[in-house]
Amino acid sequence: MKVEVFAGEDETLLSTFTINGIDEIAESDLQKKNGVTKPKVSLQFELTRSGLVQLNKAEAKVEETYFVEPTRNTTKKNATINETEDEPASEDKPAKIAKKRTIPYPLNRVDKVNHGFKQLTKEEIQASKDRIRWYERKEEERARTDKAKNDFETVIYSMREWLSDHGEAHMPYIGSTEKQEELLAQLAAGEEWLVDGDGVTATYQEYM
After folding, report:
1. Of the residues 19, 74, 85, 180, which has the fewest C-beta atoms closer than 10 A?
2. Parallel, antiparallel, or unpaired: how do β-strands 12-19 and 40-47 relate?
3. Which run of H or E residues covers position 59?
4. How many independent structural domains does the chain possess?
5. Which residues span the domain enclosing 51?
6. Spatial separation of the C-alpha atoms in residues 96 and 66, rounded to whole Å
């Protein structure tokens, strides 16, 4: 069974699906029995975000009619008693009851061909994977750089606050007022480098 999927006003052919196995079901021993219908095929498609048609489910079903003996309760319920004292009871067997059941057959052997899309070679597929990995590495480096820059900036602001707001209390650790001013100057230079200098384009290794 071949199914072609079209799209758009110009009815562009998107995909062709070949569903295998239906002939095998039609030629099975079950189909040779009386009361069995021909296979009915059910297909479930999905249009992906990439614009490709995807077959999610393919299944064939047949319906079989079979007969069962009625139960004793059913026989009594459906029987009509027309007996008289002079007429013996009828010994005819009650008619069998017809029932139906549906038998599903999954169709998993499906061949698909996409139209309007260039089939990539192995080399082109590998090149695409390498390009994706390159972008992933760039994104990882950007994330590390942003974190390193934020950490560097936090150190500058924290040290400046520590030196400026509690300078006298921390003087034993600093050493002298001249050392305090020297450290504040270094922090100012680091902030300038970060905001207006080479720190704007620096990599995460330069912040370490």
Report:
1. 85
2. unpaired
3. strand 53-68
4. 2
5. 2-68+101-118
6. 10
Q: Can you give the pTM of this predicted structure?
A: 0.41
Asked if 129 and 145 sit in the same domain, the reply is yes
Which pairing describes strands 2-7 and 12-19: parallel, antiparallel, or unpaired? antiparallel
DSSP 62-101: EEEEEEEPPPHHHHHHH------TTSPPP-PPPPPEEEEE
Among residues 61, 59, 56, the alpha carbon closest in space to that of 112 is found at 56
Read off the amino acid at residue 22.
Answer: I
11 within domain boundaries: yes
Q: Tens place of pLDDT for every residue, the chain, 208 residues?
A: 898 888 777 787 888 999 999 888 888 888 888 888 888 999 998 887 766 788 999 999 989 888 888 876 544 445 444 444 445 555 567 788 888 889 999 999 999 888 766 666 788 788 888 999 999 998 998 888 888 888 888 888 888 887 777 656 667 677 777 887 888 888 888 888 887 777 777 776 776 6
Q: Name the DSSP class of 121.
A: P
